[in-house]
Amino acid sequence: RKIESDYYMGQELGKGKFGLVRLCKSKATGEELACKTLPKNGEENVHMEVEIMQHLSGHPNVVTLRAVYEDTDSLHLVMEFCSGGRLLNAMSKNGCYAEHQAANLIKELVAVIKYCHEMGVIHRDIKPENILLTSDGRMKLADFGLSVHVANGQRLSGVVGSPAYVAPEVLAGTYSEKVDVWGAGVLLHALLIGVLPFRGESVEAIFEVIKHVQLDFQTEKWKSVSGPAKDLLSRMLSRDVGKRLSPEEVLRHPWIMFYTEPDI
Ligand code: ADP
Ligand code: MG
Ligand code: MG
Questions:
Q1: Do the Cβ atoms of 131 and 149 come closer than 8 Å?
Q2: Tens digits of per-residue pLDDT, 169-216?
Q3: Averaged pLDDT, 155-169
Q4: Ligand 3 centroid vs 252 CA: distance in angstroms?
Q5: Catalytic residue check, 231
Q6: What ipTM describes this predicted complex?
Q7: How far does residue 130's CA lie from ligand 1's centre (Å)?
Q8: What is the mean pLDDT of residues 108-129?
Q9: 19: CA distance to ligand 2 center in Å?
Q10: Considering 176, 192, 215, 234, which has the largest number of Cβ atoms within 10 A of its Cβ?
């Protein structure tokens, strides 16, 4: 079947490097959904993106894939519509986040990262452009276009991801699922003080900062941030992968435990 026979296509919701995402409405039920159209001739393995989304769709914090349509040159992914938009937009509107808000967001994000890893998937593109919000403010992890399936302990190579969020070991050679914790750490930094930790005029300059620059908690901006928040951040952004916290350890960190409700 053609996508147009089942859905009315609406306004553009977003555009990434590869996909165009539009609002759509089911002709059968009237339900609003989001449709991501991916060209099949692109460099990305679009079938892998679909397969990984299907594999992970059971989790409440993963954007659910509802249907897939294929025509000669594109795949159309019909997903649940996240009407709260991107976390990125909410962040630029809010500036910094209160610590309890940041802690709750990071807890939800890291819990879903933990789930991905348990399911054998590394997301590899954790950033606020790929974190969507529902109408009731919950977060949904989206965009599995750079994600990979890995066997236990398998190491990956090749630089992928968005420059400001790339982990140092990715630049150095081989890496594992800990890159997703680094990405969440970059996000936490931005939530706490409103700026990204690793900035530069060019991709090369950003990579140099990622490889060499230490976080400096002595600056004015950090004065109002609590000690435990800084402790967690420095452990998520540890360049030593062995010392970097696992998702499980992040969830048990005192700062997370203090500001969030325990899971039952
Ligand atoms: P790309 O792989 O091209 O980066 P994404 O899957 O990240 O594509 O989608 C691009 C943008 O489209 C997102 O940043 C967001 O603004 C919007 N978008 C994607 N999926 C949805 C959705 N399910 N609901 C609402 N907006 C979405
Ligand atoms: Mg994206
Ligand atoms: Mg993508």
A1: no
A2: 999 999 999 999 999 999 999 999 999 999 999 999 999 999 998 999
A3: 93
A4: 30
A5: no
A6: 0.98
A7: 7
A8: 97
A9: 8
A10: 192
pLDDT digits (tens, 9 = 90+) for 166-181: 999 999 999 999 999 9
| Residue whose CA lies nearest to ligand 1 atom number 6 | 143
What are the structure tokens assigned to 228, written together? 């435990």
The residue nearest atom 17 of ligand 1, judged by CA position, is: 14
The C-alpha atoms of residue 21 and residue 139 are separated, in whole angstroms, by 18
Q: Are 178 and 246 in contact (CB under 8 A)?
A: yes
Separation CA 164–CA 176 (nearest Å): 18
Return the residue whose CA atom lies nearest to atom 16 of ligand 1: 14
Compute the distance between CA of residue 192 and CA of residue 113 in angstroms, rounded to an integer. Answer: 20
Query: What pTM was estimated for this model as a whole?
Result: 0.96
**Mean pLDDT of all residues in the chain?**
95
Contact 175, 184 (CB under 8 A): no
Which of 7, 13, 17, 35 for a ligand 1 pocket mutation test, highest count of atoms within 8 Å of Cβ?
A: 13
